[in-house]
């Protein structure tokens, strides 16, 4: 339902333009199209959500010792929220955290934070029983001593684990127990699959009649249409014009010919290129951009499914964090938070007085736009295998597959440890900028934009659809199940040059958690099919 009326009291839906079809842009588009706004989403790539690597939900941000507890609690809330919007994107398996003997820290240092998160999770369940999507609160984290792991190492491995002990058998067998401190910490921090996330967003937007998606399309410029006092810093804009060019038009007789559309509100969700639009709009802002990469390998000698394994380390040092993320069929994604694997010597750049857009070295822009060059990709992939093999010795038999997940990540401000960020609002010019360091923040950003549009009189916030959002009654989930998302995710994985197996999950969220939701809640989650891949 829209708020603006003509003189004849005929409802005219307002138009919103969203630039960038990553997790932020796609999620905001779903939120606004569901409310009846004519929502126009523009994405340069051929499909949605094809950006920096992701591996898990960051439930509580347990990875980051350097961020405050309150940010970890915010991440926990956000990951539960986003999971309920995109339930079929989740791989249900635990994450194991190990502090290496070379590290100055202790596993016990993390326990106060984990207790805070357990209490926060318990409180979220008390507010809404359907928030119990990460298992029972008392099982949110568990500790394993050296003695327990020695005992588990003597047990026969289970191909498809169903208990935490069974998940820990391969850890006990493969992890070099002489190189880590005890206890090991096991947390219900689940995997998040980018191919299934892209598929979910695509299917959701196809489901909403007010969503108009332009992929393979470049936005050339944005210009104010209705502008008051445009020469002053405190000017007002009520409409924007978006000039764009679709890929199939770029070989036209007149290459300068552009299509245009006018919108009542403009949202910048351009990821690491956010500053380009800020410059067009005339907004001054300080930010950084970081090029990061993770590497895809195959390790067939696992004997079955294993959890994600994290080895702590100081970011950016030669002994930075190592991260081994499992996919089906023996594929693994590797992060090594040092400058010869995931990070790059010149990969972190800042904006300037002249431009809000940090300038990445041309080599990294080339990688993002055209793909990695084979030689450096092969070298870094092998370095990633060697890095993990220091702690998981048999992983040295893993092989590279010639591809990686990578991209530029925007970081608002000047703090490169920032992990919680959402949206900046410029009410006088009807402009918003979504900058989500973690993808789990995107639905909260969408809510803030809805509040802003309500304050501006562009929509009526008190609608049934808006109430359905907070109950997570997303209409697209009624007739899109895990099998539908499976099909689209496989296509996207192949188009992007990844194995089809990476489009799947070992354990779907439905079988593991949604069956335990409150039976007296009428949300669409309870009506989902039970099929999983």
UniProtKB/TrEMBL annotation:
Keywords: Oxidoreductase. InterPro entries: FAD-dep_OxRdtase, FAD/NAD-bd_sf, HMG_CoA_Rdtase_CS. It comes from the Bacteria. Pfam families: DAO. PROSITE patterns: HMG_COA_REDUCTASE_2. Residues 16-398 form the FAD dependent oxidoreductase domain. Signal peptide: none annotated. The keyword Oxidoreductase applies. This is FAD dependent oxidoreductase. It comes from Psychrobacter alimentarius.
């Amino acid at each position: 339902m829209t708020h603006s009326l003509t003189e004849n009291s005929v409802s005219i839906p307002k138009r919103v333009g969203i630039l960038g079809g990553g997790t932020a842009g796609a999620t905001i588009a779903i939120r606004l199209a569901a409310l009846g706004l004519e929502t126009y989403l523009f994405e340069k790539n051929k499909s949605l959500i094809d950006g920096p690597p992701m591996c898990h939900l960051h439930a509580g941000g347990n990875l980051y010792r350097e961020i405050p507890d309150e940010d970890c609690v915010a991440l926990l809330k956000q990951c539960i929220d986003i999971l309920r919007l995109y339930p079929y994107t989740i791989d249900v398996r635990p994450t194991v955290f190990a502090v290496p003997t070379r590290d100055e820290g202790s596993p016990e240092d993390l326990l106060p934070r984990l207790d805070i998160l357990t209490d926060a999770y318990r409180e979220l369940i008390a507010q809404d029983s359907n928030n119990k999507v990460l298992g029972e609160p008392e099982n949110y984290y568990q500790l394993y001593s050296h003695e327990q792991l020695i005992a588990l190492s003597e047990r026969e491995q289970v191909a498809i684990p169903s208990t935490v002990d069974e998940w820990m058998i391969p850890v006990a067998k493969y992890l070099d127990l002489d190189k880590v401190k005890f206890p090991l910490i096991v947390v219900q921090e689940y995997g998040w699959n980018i191919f299934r996330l892209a598929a979910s967003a695509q299917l959701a937007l196809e489901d909403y009649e007010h969503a108009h998606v332009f992929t393979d399309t470049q936005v050339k410029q944005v210009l104010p249409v209705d502008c008051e006092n445009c020469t002053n810093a405190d000017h007002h804009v009520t409409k924007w014009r978006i000039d764009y060019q679709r890929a199939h038009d770029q070989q036209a007789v007149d290459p300068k010919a552009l299509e245009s559309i006018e919108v009542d509100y403009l949202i910048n969700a351009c990821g690491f290129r956010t500053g380009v639009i800020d410059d067009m709009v005339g907004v001054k802002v300080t930010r950084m951009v970081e090029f990061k990469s993770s590497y895809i390998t195959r390790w067939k000698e696992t004997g079955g499914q294993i959890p994600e394994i994290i080895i702590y380390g100081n970011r950016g040092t030669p002994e930075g964090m190592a991260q081994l993320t499992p996919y089906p069929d023996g594929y693994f994604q590797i992060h090594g938070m040092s400058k010869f694997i995931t990070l790059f010597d010149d990969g972190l750049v800042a904006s300037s007085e002249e431009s809000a857009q940090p300038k990445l070295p041309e080599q990294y822009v080339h990688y993002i736009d055209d793909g990695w060059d084979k030689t450096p990709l092969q070298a870094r992939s092998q370095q990633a295998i060697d890095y993990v093999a220091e702690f998981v010795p048999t992983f040295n038999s893993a092989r590279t597959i010639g591809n990686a997940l990578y991209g530029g990540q925007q970081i608002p401000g000047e703090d490169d440890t920032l992990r919680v960020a959402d949206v900046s609002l410029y009410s006088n010019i009807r402009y918003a900028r979504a900058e989500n360091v973690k993808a789990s923040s995107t639905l909260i950003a969408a809510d803030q934009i809805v509040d802003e549009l309500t304050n501006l009189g562009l929509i009526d916030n008190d609608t049934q659809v808006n109430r359905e959002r907070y109950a997570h009654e997303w209409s697209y989930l009624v007739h899109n199940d895990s099998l539908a998302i499976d099909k689209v995710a496989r296509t996207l994985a192949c188009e992007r040059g990844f194995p089809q197996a990476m489009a799947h999950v070992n354990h779907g969220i439905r079988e593991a958690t949604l069956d335990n939701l409150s039976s007296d809640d009428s949300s669409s989650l309870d009506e989902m099919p039970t099929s999983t891949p």
